[in-house]
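Students often ask why we bother encoding 3D structure as a string. The short answer is that it lets us treat folding as translation between two languages. Here is a chain of 136 residues written in the first language.
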Amino acid sequence: MHLTTFLALLIPNVTSHSAISSKAFVAVWLICCIITALLAARFQYATFIFAAITGGTSMALAFGITIHPPLLARQIFPALFVTLLLVAVLLPTRVREPALRASTAATGALGFAISVALLASQASWEDAWSRFWTST
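And here it is in the second language, the structure alphabet:
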């Protein structure tokens, strides 16, 4: 869900394509959710990889909003966090379980924070995904 939202915001800003409509966004979002749910249900390591990617991206976005570093650092954070969590979730159980807990907690916390911000009309969190490509 977070990745689909990120891509839906990134593609119109980086390319000359126009933004997708709300109905098209829901269709793309549902297709992505169904595909990833089927993969995660069938393959255990796919679940670990999806958790690490979403958790690492969520942590990077939360740190990017919280400390507001320069644009280059905000673009390096996702690569750093995703790589660290991917390695951690593919290690034995002793390391995997805390990494999975951190990943899912970060994803849930970011989703909750963005949901509350949208309901409360807080401008700083409403356009959170745009922090990865805007320099301000």
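Translate back mentally: The first helix runs from residue 2 to 14. Keep this in mind for the problem set.
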